Amino acid sequence: MGAAEHPRRLGIPKTRARDPLEVFRSSSPLELFLDLVFAIAVSLSSAQLFRAETSAHIGEGVVAYLMVFFAVWWAWMNFTWFASAFDSDDWLYRVLTLSQMAGAIVLAVGATPAMVSGDFGLIIGGYVVMRLALVAQWVRVACGQPEFRRTALRFAIGVSAVQVFWVLFAFVPDHWSKPLFCVLVIAELAVPAFAESAGQTPWHPGHIVDRFGSFTLIVLAESVLAATTAAANAIEEATHLTDFVLIGFSGFALAAGMWWIYFSTDAGEWLQNRRNGLPFGIGHYLVFAAAGAFSTGIKVLLDYEAGRAAVTAAEAMLLLAVPVAVFILGVWALILRRHLTSAQSACFVLGAALVALCPLLAFAGVTPPVAALVAAGVMAALVVVIEVWGVRGGSTPRSVSSRAVPA
Predict the structure, then answer these.
(1) What's the Cα-to-Cα distance from 214 to each of 30, 93, 210, 220, 288, rounded to whole Å?
(2) Other Cβ atoms closer than 10 A to 105
(3) Model confidence over 387-400: pLDDT tens digits?
(4) Alpha carbons 9 and 245: distance in angstroms, whole number
(5) CA atoms of 262 and 264, how far apart (whole Å)
(6) Is the pLDDT of residue 244 over 50?
(7) Distance between CA atoms of residues 249 and 373, nearest Å
(8) DSSP secondary structure string, 226-272?
(9) 126-165 core/surface letters (b: 16 or more CB in 10 A; e: else)
């Protein structure tokens, strides 16, 4: 019996590469299950951001949130890209994926001590568990797919090496933690570029678009929940009935607008050029983080109106408006820009700027609920632009030929 047959003899199936031209490739039930588990980590990190912002520790809270969210997003994105290329759906693949989910749960539990007291022990432990499970997946690819052996080994070695430094990160003095964190982030981002230079993995452009869209929906659902909470509070806080109704309506309108612009066009054709994959994925860090922070902004605005938040009117509105503006700019840069004329692009950039400037209305005596309604009005105007100018389901992106093939 040859060496290549040993994995089968031991009962361990060989992994297989997926067809990057497969028709109607969509998220699997296992992928959707993993998304829901990662949504728990997003929810808990957003909850800690809310606590920091309502207690007037805005700067520290935002920095801690971005650090924790990186761990959530990067682990999710690496799994997504791997699954798009090598989802064999056998028992070992499922066990390793469930192991990543277990790590995500540990990471979610660690979000609270990490953001409250700067104790990243649990969150690093969960992150390392997720990453080492991914290393095992890459080792399987190296053993079972000779044509991708060099790439898989580079991924396995690169990811493993960075995890050693993440473990050491837990013992670094506080004044060195943020600079070292930035260095390790750069190292993490460098691994895919280093590995894929040895040979590109057969990920599926349409599947990647579907996966990122699914996670966007989950994160935006947090915002819809916050808007629903506004309606519930309106019944309990009868003295602020109008304000709570305005916040609830504005929050839902903003969430609906964010959904509308994100799903107005398809980035699949742009991703046919495989060199665009990494910028598309990395750029979504800001899109996802902004969507998560947006749900927090709604809750802060509710607490401000109820007199429970230690922030000013302008700060309360700022915490809602800035995430929405970042989301608009991120979607424009990653998806919409290639489907728009210069004039249409200018409208989206201007719209994002107007939303970001809405907090200044507080200095003119405009209440935060009314300012939130103005922001929702700007979002509605952007949706009108999409529909009137035929952006949704429109023409092929100007920068990519409809005959483009994977590079």
Answers:
(1) 13, 21, 6, 10, 11
(2) 15
(3) 988 887 654 444 33
(4) 64
(5) 6
(6) yes
(7) 8
(8) HHHHHHHHHHH-GGGHHHHHHHHHHHHHHHHHHHHHHTSS--TTGGG
(9) bbbbbbbbbbebbbbbbbbbeebeebbbbbbebbbebbee
